[in-house]
Design brief:
Layout (H helix, E strand, L loop, with lengths): L46 H14 L8 H14 L5 H10 L1 H11 L10 H18 L4 E6 L5 H13 L5 E7 L2 H9 L1 E2 L9 H7 E3 L8 E3 L1 H4 L2 E5 L11 E5 L9 H14 E8 L9 H4 L2 E4 L2 E3 L3
Parallel strand pairs: 1-2, 1-7, 2-6, 7-8
Antiparallel strand pairs: 3-5, 4-5, 8-10, 9-10
Helix pairs in contact: 1-3, 3-4
């Protein structure tokens, strides 16, 4: 009789040559990328800045709200600190009661950096190319406006070019600035050695005479040049513009204004020029949206009113 065999024990799982099996390694989930940093917006002007702007406008007629707020506020607080003012309210009170501080404030607010024939290659282009063209297409002597003329280096440079352009009627230069103190200096027509660094020796000999004062070199423009230049105080944002102009030179002035104020100034410049007249801007400036305003690009730093 056959007998039933006993059940065999279960075999242990086979071992690999590398040793016992290991549980699979779990990788941690990938970390989410950090959020992009938020663009830092310029801090809002202080309440005393807004009060200061309103007070200055009432006192002087100057609308500081058309200037870049952050830049202007920093400059004003620096100026106030020099006069021991804790805030702009104190500075406004000081300006109201002290005429000398008021004049210094106006001088500080306007940037008076210039020299005769600044960026000489631009003046050479003006002399060789654009002034002869304006003379051919104009009527009689040229009418030129130096807008934001500072202490007079630019308008006297333009007067030299006009005098040398023709032996007939050279024209006239209107020179304007917001700062009455700097205009008084411009009317005197005196310059130092550094101001004349771009003036050729021939022009120095012809148009300037040396009059040293207090041990320092000083150069006086000729009476012939002074007779060509008419100075007046003028606010580009609020005052009426001249018209029928052949050339407007406004260089490194509007860079301190807001974009909206710049656009308004450039539109008013366009209207002030006669058809074919030109605008001469600074070496770091461009008229944004020039064609849409009605300008025609004539050169890197020259714009023309079509016509």
């Amino acid at each position: 009789m056959a007998t039933e065999s006993a059940p065999r024990p279960a075999r242990a799982p086979a071992r690999s040559a590398a040793g016992p099996a290991r549980p699979p390694t779990r990788r941690p989930p990938a970390a989410a990328p950090p959020p992009a940093p938020r663009a830092r917006s310029a801090p809002a002007p202080g309440a005393d800045y807004e009060r200061f702007c309103a007070g200055v406008k009432a006192l002087t007629g100057i609308a500081l709200e058309h200037y870049r707020a952050g830049q202007m506020e920093r400059r004003l607080r620096t100026f106030g600190g020099r006069h021991e003012c804790a805030d702009l309210d104190e500075l406004l009170a000081l300006i109201r009661r002290d005429a000398d501080v008021k004049d210094k404030f106006l001088d500080h607010m306007t940037i008076n950096v210039s020299e005769l024939f600044r960026n000489p290659e631009r003046f050479e282009e003006l002399e060789r190319r654009w002034l002869p063209e304006l003379q051919r297409t104009g009527r009689g002597g040229l009418k030129v406006w130096s807008a934001g003329c500072s202490y007079g280096a630019e308008p006297y440079s333009l007067a030299v070019l006009l005098q040398e352009l023709t032996s007939g009627t050279p024209g006239q230069v209107l020179a304007s600035d917001l700062d009455a103190v700097i205009l008084a200096r411009a009317r005197r027509g005196r310059f130092g050695d550094q101001d004349l660094k771009n003036v050729t020796p021939a022009r120095v000999a012809k148009w300037f005479r040396r009059e040293d004062a207090d041990g320092q070199a000083a150069w006086q423009v000729s009476e012939r040049l002074k007779a060509m230049v008419r100075f007046r105080q003028h606010n580009l944002l609020t005052d009426r513009y001249p018209d029928g102009l052949d050339l407007i030179a406004c260089r490194n002035v509007v860079i301190y204004f807001t974009d909206e104020a710049k656009d308004e100034i450039y539109r008013r410049f366009l209207a002030a020029l006669r058809p074919g007249g030109m605008l001469f801007v600074g070496s770091t400036e461009r008229v944004n949206g020039a064609e849409a305003m009605g300008w025609e690009r004539a050169g890197s730093f020259f714009y023309r009113r079509p016509g």
